[in-house]
UniProtKB/TrEMBL annotation:
Cell membrane listed as a keyword: yes
Organism expressing this protein natively: Chelatococcus asaccharovorans
Keyword set, alphabetical order: ATP-binding, Cell membrane, Membrane, Nucleotide-binding, Translocase, Transport
SUPFAM superfamilies with a match to the protein in the record: P-loop containing nucleoside triphosphate hydrolases
One Pfam family cited in the UniProt record for this chain: ABC_tran
Protein name: Phosphonate transport system ATP-binding protein
Similarity comment text for this entry: Belongs to the ABC transporter superfamily.
Keyword Membrane attached: yes
SMART domains, per the entry: AAA
Gene Ontology molecular functions: ABC-type phosphonate transporter activity; ATP binding; ATP hydrolysis activity
Amino acid sequence: MLVVNDLRKTFGRRAAVDSLSLSIPTGQMVGVIGRSGAGKSTFLRLINRLIEPTGGSIAFDGTDVTRLTGRDLRLWRASCGMIFQQFNLIERMDVLTNVLVGRLAHHGFGSSMARAFSAAERATAIRALDRLDLAPQALQRAGTLSGGQQQRVAIARALVQSPRLLLADEPIASLDPANAARVMDALRLINREDGITVIVNLHTIDTARRYCDRIVAMRDGRIQFDGAPDGLTGAVLADTYGDSAVGGAIDEAITSTELPPVRQLETA
């Protein structure tokens, strides 16, 4: 279980995350929504310790994540598979090598520099790609893939880290509806089949409702709503996005990415 208690992050005088507390059971898929600047991305980066909290604590299965240092911190970051809007692939490298980069935290300095991956690690990477319908592209340069394919490569890279959490920061914001659906289908399938907790920041309300067990709505670094998708009423959305957004802006947020019907990805 992930337990966040009174988590705070300030940048100068601005509170990006302000006294945030919540508990997320293992295996839950949580969608985080809110307008730009609500603190969603900062929240994920705090969990992964990519940035340091100003105050409060983060615990996972009884371990105080905020106190980890050195190798323990490196392994914690490896256990949080992070998926970004920008994909963060090395475009000149082939797809397989990009996926294997997810194993670097488990290597010493020398083998990391040499990219000395074992046969077992390469097999794991191929299985992850096959699971995401990308095995045929394993030796293709990452930069030649479509945006949706690149994001699925990023998911495969996260999978080979053997993550305990998957953190996805606006993973479909730059994708067309068909590719957005494939990425969200993949995240949900991993959540369901592997029992991995998934926390995903989303721009579109309909996507959060469709895919997530639970929705957390943020505004000004604070939680405005935390509950089941069917509890996300117009009044809650007005509190989250501002009273002026009750009309057209909320309608646009709900429908700006119309995803095709949910489907199941074939698994290896």
